[in-house]
Amino acid sequence: MSQLDLRELHSPEFPVPTDMQGNVAITSLSKIYNWSRRSSMWPLLFGLACCAIEMIATAASRYDLSRFGMEVMRASPRQSDLMIVSGTVTKKMVVPIVRIYNQMPEPKYVMAMGACASGGGPFKEGYNVVSGIDQYIPVDVYIPGCPPTPQALLYGLISLQKKIDGQSLANMDDVPWYGVGPSDPVPVPVLGPDIIDPRQAELIRQQAVLAAQGKPFGVRELSGAALGVRAAVPVVEAKPALEAATASTEAAAELDPEKAARLAKREAALARKRAAQGGEKSE
Predict the structure, then answer these.
(1) CATH code of the domain made up of 50-165
(2) If you average pLDDT over residues 108-135, what whole number do you get?
(3) What angle do CA 180, 174, 189 make, to 5 degrees?
(4) Which of 65, 122, 158, 264 is deepest in the core (most CB within 10 A)?
């Protein structure tokens, strides 16, 4: 506590005398909550390819990663809250990466380090390389480079801290792990002759039926942008989930209106969260 600078937590909306700013701070609960998480981010200790060497160099004494409270790299995903995907993501490695991501407790963040983790890099469209880890797990920060320098990784960590600083406990959509409930686990891909995403099982089944009938399948349709036509923005409808949430709170409203209102707000935020996850998965 002797090294705590209260000026980092002070809100400029409430004036405090200059001689007391080192002892008194007026701030919000969200700012204290975000400050505590951003200052104790524990990355997961694992690497995939050459980007991992740069990550190791960043953790060395020359760059002093401990300035950001991120020098404690944990070997267990259950003690980590930041996954740095550093290197080429092959189809063989997607399976353990998704499994490790599901084992991390919330709140958790993902950083795609390098061109390979972000979009495939020089191996894009390769037979054994995934064109971006964001096709399987959500990514918060992308770090360009092949490989990125330690300075680039530091800038990515600072960008992640800025993103955490902008979150608010009052917004359930902003911090879905607080008040709404844990996220649904990401389905672990199936590795066979090729990697299969369980979320695309229905599409694969439809294409197999068309192939068995001798009809064309797997034909890529040009989008409106490619045809020079302005396409409509796809919207994920959360109406069924919202209706179900409303119906589940009707009985509770008769007993306790305030409790029913809080429950309805929570269910609505959870429905929007699932709808947003469904939109990301469909892309």
Answers:
(1) 3.40.50.12280
(2) 90
(3) 70
(4) 65
